[in-house]
Amino acid sequence: xxxxxxxxxxxxxxxxxxxxxxxxxxxxxxxxxxxxxxxxxxxxxxxxxxxxxxxxxxxxxxxxxxxxxxxxxxxxxxxxxxxxxxxxxxxxxxx
Length: 95
Fold this sequence. Notes:
By secondary structure, the protein is of the alpha+beta class. About 15% of the residues lie in helices and about 20% in strands.
């Protein structure tokens, strides 16, 4: 196996030991900091990689280094206009 394997805990957390942001910046995640606090508000991965306090690279205050992250499940986008058109068609056909 060429690529390093990421160990995912049963609760979905993936350990992070510093370095580059391991995800595309637009990925929605929760993070766990070294001090044990879990940020439950979803942020883009790139949010934590900005400025002098890059939490991914373990810069800035030690307590606020990211030590684990978890992907936020995203609900599928519903094309409401197309769905309403199908409902209208079904109603016309039933009438």
